[in-house]
Each structure stands twice: as structure tokens, then as C-alpha cells.
Fold these 2 entries.
Entry 1:
Amino acid sequence: MKTTDFDYYLPEELIAQDPLEDRSSSRLLVLDKTTGKYEDRCFKDIVSYLSPGDTLVMNNTKVIPARLFGKREGTEGACEILLLKRLDSDVWECLVKPGKRLREGAVIIFGDGVLKGTVEKVLDNGNRYIRFSYEGIFEEILDRLGEMPLPHYIKHRLKDKNRYQTVYAKYDGSAAAPTAGLHFTKELLKEINDKGIQLAFVTLHVGLGTFRPVKADDIKDHEMHSEFYIIDEETARIINDTKKRGSKVVCVGTTSVRTIESAADDDGTVKAGSGWTDIFIYPGYRFKVVDRLITNFHLPKSTLIMLVSALAGRENVLGAYSHAVEEKYRFFSFGDAMLIY
């Protein structure tokens, strides 16, 4: 299967640059994965597509303000650091700009010296291992100095950091938000729960690899990035009980899909635990757990649109995307949503 099979036309003006004031007022394109038929709704209508006994699975990772701006020690050379993955308490794998000047041993000064970073290793892919030194609590310093690492296609500055967090974000660790969850408010979640739909939470720390385009001509040649996930005993029990009674497991976002499919046995039993997953889901994949999916609109030729196509069918998905373009839906992280059922 070719990467170009997952391309589509998107006018640049449909890429959402700012979040809506009311999270749940986004539009919702509902796609029937069996028939390929779709309908236009409002996100608040999601409640009517959920039944008592169903389980909504959400990723409670929290985005850290992972973008830091500093200067190389002894120079006025500006540089930008993006925290990707924590290796131990003070060492992170980072994306850096400009890369050519940040060789091993280079020291970067942030915030007038309250935070320093030393390049310990240059990786083959151009990323760096950087050791940070500071006094106090790293997370507090990062919250003061760092900025939210918005995707490259968002050009506007984010006024409120919390708008790039879900209302249920709990555990620090992501370089990007699980954006399907941005549409939920606490009030909407209460309404869903009051209807008899269970809420279950997994944690998968989203890396920037989620935005990386597939460059291989054949999708099977693509090397998938890895991300750390956690599923606790309660969540595993809730999901397994849902499947046993024949109710639906509805994932919020592709990260929730990747998490529970990674943790499931061949018979669909989800196991509690933690680890790294590099699961690549594309058409032909047989889902073991997931029945339905709430998701945003994804980049052309991305692993995410391939995952969605695995669940709903490539032609169905591309047909729905074409309709969304015609109807001027808002796309990507701050955009509108889809329900695949």
C-alpha cells in the first residue's frame, strides 16, 4: 500500500489556528464505518451516540511546556530546545536548533542562568542528549521558562496554556496534546457518565513523531516512533468487562487506540502494565479491542490517517474528509472532530 493512497487536498485556510472559546461547540462529523455514510453534528451531540454500558477510554497525559529558548554560553547565539523524552531525572533527549552549533560539550543558558543544559551526546538522527542543571524543582522552572510545543502548522501564539491540555490531563510527559480530548468539558463528561457510560483512563506520553510525515513510498517501510504508556489494573478491568458484556469500547484519540491495542492479547484481553509501544496500525490490521473512535482530522499521508483508515476503511475516510473540506470543517489540533462508529 502506497503512502500517496492517504493523501488528500486541504486548503491552508482550513487549518485551525486557535481553539474555540467553548471546547464542546466544535463540529462533529459522524461516520458509519460499515456503510460509509456520514452526517454533520455538533460535538455536544456525542452523548446520543453512546449507550449505557459503553466505556469511553481517554489518554490523561499532560503536555509539558517543552519548548525552551536560550543562548550558548559565552556567545549571543540564540538556540531553541524541544524536550522529547526524559531518560533520567535530569537528562532528556531533545530536538535542537541550530543543530550544527550545539556539539557535544556545548552549554546552553536559559532564563539568565536559572537553568543550564549541557549537550552530552549527538545522536545519529540529529537529536541530542542534554543534561540539565538547576537549583530547585525542574518542573517549576520549566513551567516558568517553557512554552507549549504547538505543532508546526499552528502559527498563532497560544494565549492560554490550558487550552492545549485536556480537562482531565494528569500526568506530565507529552510533547503534544492528545487533541481529540480537547473537545470535552467537565460538564459534558459528567453528562456522559450520568448516562451510564464508564470513563476509563490510560496514559501515553505523545511524542512529536506523531506529526512526522511518512516519507517511504510503501507504508510498510515506515519506521514508527515509540512512546511510553501505562494502563492500571482498574482501567484494564473496566475495558475487559465492557467487552465481556458486549458493550462498546470507544477510544478518544488515536493515542488511546494505540495504547490499548498494544496492551491486548490476541484474544482481546487488555493487560495492566507499562512499556514502550511502536505499534503501527494501517489498513489490514485487525482490531482486538477498539469498537469506535472519536478523533480529529489528521495530516495527509500521516500514520494517524492510516490508523483511522484501518478502522473505517480508506475510501470511507477519504470520502468523509472530502466532505469536511467542502463544508469547511476546521482541521488538525484545534479543529473539529469525527466519530467513527
Entry 2:
Amino acid sequence: MGYTIIWTDKSRKNLEKIPKDTAARIIERVEIIRGDPFLHIDRLAGSSWYKYRVGRYRVILDIKRKTLVIYVIKVGQRKVVYRNLE
């Protein structure tokens, strides 16, 4: 049984600002990690969140192991995605 993926409002808005072909690729790649996300992600330094690399873009994730849920927190280019993370 795989994880459930929940896109936050902020991550959906981030996707709208990205070119459609790139956004589709990001969505497709996030769906791929549903089975076992820990094979593909790295822990975000100084945080309980994780990062997932998709080309020049990064996807910030919050993973709840007990409930098998992946929250997509933020999506953006590497140079700006790490700003203002809370």
C-alpha cells in the first residue's frame, strides 16, 4: 500500500507559475515516489521536512509515516524554493 499525496494550496499555486510541461513532469515524478518515498528523497538540513529533486526544481515534502501521507509543501527552482520555509 502506497502513500497518499496531498498538495497544499501553496504548492498548487507554485505549480501554476511553472511552465505546464515542467509542472506535469513534477506531478508525474511525485506520483512515482508514492510507493517508497525514502528511496528518492533527502532530509532538508535543519528541518523535519524532505526535499525531492526534479531537474532544476525542488519539491519540499512533509511525510507522515504513521498515516502514510506525503504533503507537498512547496515547489520551485532550487535558487528560491528554500526561502521563507516555516
